[in-house]
Amino acid sequence: MEKLIEIDNKKVPFKATGGTLRRYRSKFGRDMIADMDALLKNYKKNKEEGGNLERANLEIFENVAYIMAKQADSSVPDDPDEWLDEFNMFSIWVILPQIIDLWQTQQLPLAELKKK
What we know:
57% of the residues lie in helices and 10% in strands. By secondary structure, the chain is mostly helical. Strand 1 (2-7) and strand 2 form a beta hairpin. Helix 1 crosses helix 3 (55-72). The longest helix is centred in the middle third of the chain and has 18 residues, at 32-49. 20% of the residues are buried.
């Protein structure tokens, strides 16, 4: 699943596949499913209350976005900080919902279950 997301007036490709979890674990040594679960909970809570993401969840957002961008475009630098330096300040509240949508869409089953 691929998606173009505009960041700092640039169209940035992102990709999520079955290999995304492995790449994330390999690069950051963390479980992406657990991290995304924590990020989603924090995002929903703060969206309703108008707060900010916790620092740990901000880092998860940056790491997930980086892995999905690197997966979509091999010319993305090998260092997430170098990649982030390519952008000026941007609102994560605009980008994060699109990353979440890409992640959740990739998680949907492709076939209908036969047993109920």
